[in-house]
Amino acid sequence: MRGLEVCTAEKDLARRTSCLQANIEFLQQELTKLARRAEQDRALAVKETTTLKADVVGLKILLGKAQDEIEMLKKKPDEKVKK
């Protein structure tokens, strides 16, 4: 993984420990970034879902009105236009 150091090459225990700590800090920073990005993506998805639900409600209303108009037209007797 880019950003991680290979700590096995270090012979001195203090340097190896320092190397491992640097890797841990790097991984924690990456996890924090990924968690933040995931939360932003989730919030965006929730917002988009809410918008889509509102659109569906609006479309259902329009569909209901159209169906009502169709039913009204079906009930009316045939009217011929005289010219």
Description of the molecule:
The chain has one helix at 13-75. It is built from 1 helix and no strands. Helices cover 76% and strands 0% of the residues. It starts with 12 loop residues before the first helix and ends in an 8-residue tail after the last helix. The chain is mainly alpha-helical and 83 residues long.
Question: Keywords for this structure?
Answer:
83 residues, 1 helix, 0% strand
Task: Give a nutshell description of this structure.
With 83 residues, the protein is mainly alpha-helical. 76% of the residues lie in helices and 0% in strands. It contains 1 helix and no strands.
| Overall spatial form | rod-shaped
Strand content is under 5%
Distance separating the two termini: 82 Å
User: Main β-sheet: number of strands, strand sense, barrel status?
Assistant: none
**How helical, in percent, are the residues?**
over 70%
Order of helices and strands: H
Mean pLDDT over the residues: 90
**How many E strands?**
0
Number of helices: 1
Low-confidence stretches: none
Instruction: Compute the CA-based radius of gyration.
Output: 32 Å
Q: What structural class should be given to the helix and strand makeup?
A: mainly alpha
